[in-house]
User: Fold this.
Amino acid sequence: MIKKLLLHICCAPCLIFPLEELRKEDYEIIAYFYNPNIHPTKEYILRRDALIKYSKLEKINIIFEDYKPENFFKNILQDLENRCYFCYKMRLEKAVIKAKQVGADFFTTTLLYSKRQKHDLILEIAKNIVKNEDVSFLYKDFRIGWRYGIEKSKEIGLYRQNYCGCIFSEKERFYRDEPELF
Assistant:
């Protein structure tokens, strides 16, 4: 019996390896893009458009949630030190809601692909979210295909971002120290 799987996608490069691995198993994959954390809007559009390009190559339909960055800020402003926790939780909770709406049996996320994400935190949040739900969390350590996904995304010519997505990760990536004024 084919089981429905909702796959939350953070970006096209992170989708490559998980999609290939999940297609080897007996799942009907429902792809879902929900990432209000991405800043600025221009970056969101670049990532969305790269995903559209890749989805056409792989012939996969994707459900795109409306881009509302205010949802991200509403969630993380309560505790900036733990912003990653709130960001993951917000996106995974929304993925569970969408999974139930589309009748999925399971959900997982491409956030489990990147070596730069907080893997254990994502896993803990996902397990807690599904405790009282009709949807199960499918855990896969997609990091084993990290190098493969990078190389394939370069071959295809996909846009590759250089920070996680939020304004804070952008600052951490590009802003190192105060310049010396005098």
Notes: The mean pLDDT is 93. The chain is about 50% helix and 15% strand. The chain has one domain: 3-174. Residues 79 and 123 are 20 Å apart (CA to CA).
